[in-house]
Amino acid sequence: MMHKYKNSEAKNCLIDKHVVFIGDSRIRQLFYSFIKLINPQVKEEGIKHGNIPFEDKSASIKVDFLWYPEVNGSMRQRIKSWTEGSVAKPHIIVVGAATWSIKIHNGSNEALAQYKINITSIAPLLEKLAISSDVYWVLQDPVYEDMLSESRKMITNEKIDAYNEAAVRILNSSSRNSKAKVKVFSVSKLIAQETIMKSADGLHLPESSRDTNAMILMNVYCNKIMKPIDGSCCQPQPPLTLIQKIAFCFFTLSIIGYLIISLIHRNNYRKNKSCTDLESGEEKKPAISIPNVSTLEMLLHCFCKLGLIMTYFYLCDRANLFMKENKFYTHSSFFIPIAYILVLGVFYTENTKETKVLNREQTDEWKGWMQLVILIYHISGASTFLPVYMHIRVLVAAYLFQTGYGHFSYFWIKGDFGVYRVCQVLFRLNFLVVVLCIVMDRPYQFYYFVPLVTVWFMIIYATLAVWPQIIQKKANGNCLWHFGLLLKLICLLTCIYFLSYSQGAFEKIFSFWPLSKCFELNGNVYEWWFRWKLDRYVVFHGMLFAFIYLALQKRQMISEGKGDALFSNRVSNVLLFISIVSFLTYSIWASSCKNKTECNELHPSVSVVQILAFILIRNIPGYVRSVYSSFFAWFGKISLELFICQYHIWLAADTKGILVLIPGYPMFNVVVSTFIFVCVAHEISQITNDLAQIVVPKDNSTLLKRLLCIAGFFSGLHFFSAMQDQSRH
Length: 729
What we know:
Layout: H1 7-14, E1 18-23, H2 25-38, E2 52-56, E3 61-67, H3 73-83, E4 92-96, H4 99-104, H5 109-129, E5 134-138, H6 157-170, E6 183-185, H7 187-195, H8 207-226, H9 242-272, E7 275-276, E8 283-284, H10 295-317, E9 323-326, H11 331-347, E10 349-351, H12 360-380, H13 386-414, H14 419-439, H15 449-465, H16 472-477, H17 480-500, H18 503-510, H19 515-519, H20 526-534, H21 538-554, H22 569-591, H23 596-619, H24 622-625, E11 627-629, H25 630-637, H26 639-649, E12 651-652, E13 657-660, H27 666-695, H28 700-728
Parallel strand pairs: 1-3, 1-4, 4-5, 5-6
Antiparallel strand pairs: 2-3, 7-8, 9-13, 10-11, 12-13
Helix pairs in contact: 1-8, 2-8, 3-5, 5-6, 7-8, 9-10, 10-27, 11-12, 12-13, 12-25, 12-26, 13-15, 13-21, 13-23, 14-15, 14-27, 22-23, 26-27
């Protein structure tokens, strides 16, 4: 993966550095592309056959081009001067030349022999410089022979290959020290093989190709300094942190413990299994039955599987074991898979068990197809296409809408505000993310969606649980309680409105310890404020919709029988027409967006239009409400795990790129990585459900003990994190 360095990043990397380019006109091209990464305003106005200096005084960066079109005594003398103690050595040296030697000597074999002699004399000097500086030898790019002028016809690709072969063979041949290696910059040659036919003269690369070469050169040098997550080349594997080492030991012990217990149970089973009576020839039953799986064994089994899965996560996105590649968006890479999963979803259509609005099968289906669309959006890099981005923002808002709808409905109908319910929800939402924060060394806020739904769940809980607790059973006895609940919702809306326009107040709330440890990213909570603000009203909309729907349902103002329209025919037709028009109007508006910032400002207020339109279109016709796609519903049940796991084992570099398990076969790679990714997400969902039963028991006294253990765990985690930060500083 290639990180695209901005001017500020390039300056930070090269601050107080001296860079030298030595060679002919093709190296001069690379020089200009390189300095434009530092200052895009630079004009290519230097002397053609002379030295060209460049300096950025703000960052104390010096970049020089030295005109030495041939590998000869003059070039050797210049390089030798840097090896002498009194002269300051450049930090980066980029050198390469050959085409002038071929041209001047008409491609003679004698010129090639002399070239070999000259490189042989220069190689030890370059290797000596490579001990303290970064030295790159640029291989010669191929030419487009049909476009070469008459004076350059002798520069053939056959000759260029011979010169390149000589350079590669001679350079580093005398060096035994791995640090004294001259780096052969061969990528330019590979790029030229694909793009040289677009050259203006057959010799020099088109501008886009040389800009790519300069960016790669910047990656080669700067990635180890700046450590960009999407620059997978040329940076060492990050060292294991103290917390990662402890996690590794824990999972290793869990695996060993589970294997030991499994072997003990297996031996006990063998001793107690049925055996044949030698006298009667009849089979006897064992006196002792097979013991039930103990809580300890289930725990170890879960952690054993989780340990193996986390090892795969680490190998995919932290170790330099698998390759990663950049995303390149095309309309076909996004819309063709969308059409394919749509056909699959329709094919697996079944009848629902119940026909209520937003029943369980329907919400699972809704989550499922939205998650699949979001996954395709991420892997195809469709965020660069603004209309698609705006529609995906609605899907994220729809998840939050369901959060508001689902949790409000539960508390309103059940009236269960107990600690058990809260702990169950928090555990299921956060378990995987907490483990990934430890194993992948990432902050909690990095997995922004989970903090978002967690905070909104707590807001919903606080809104309904605070005195006076108003639930459906109480409100049915007195209609005034409905007004009380509406008053609570209005207070909630007022708070949301205030915090969305008061960044300072929001940041003060979430900058207090220990909240700051959870919600800071890169030292501040701005990213968290931005994410929260982007969909600030939609959870409230979900709660309000649930309240109105349940009130209508209680008064039997809607018909939810199988095959029945939700309202009378006239009302249903009018609402259906309005919904379709609203849905299409929003899509037209989103597709006409020109400025992402302006559209994001409007999004929180208008996203609910398309969400409500979809709900009504999906539920008003009885025959549509009575069926669902089991294909989408299956994915909906593991949608949270799919959303989180994609960060590291389907995408790569923390979603910036694509994981490459099978290089050279992109389609086959996507099929294999997707299969593993979905299986892992499903397995993690099962592990989370199993652990939730153990970690969050229904018995209050046992639950209190577990909560104390969890508090101790997080205290220990904070202690080791503080030690880790201190050692880093």
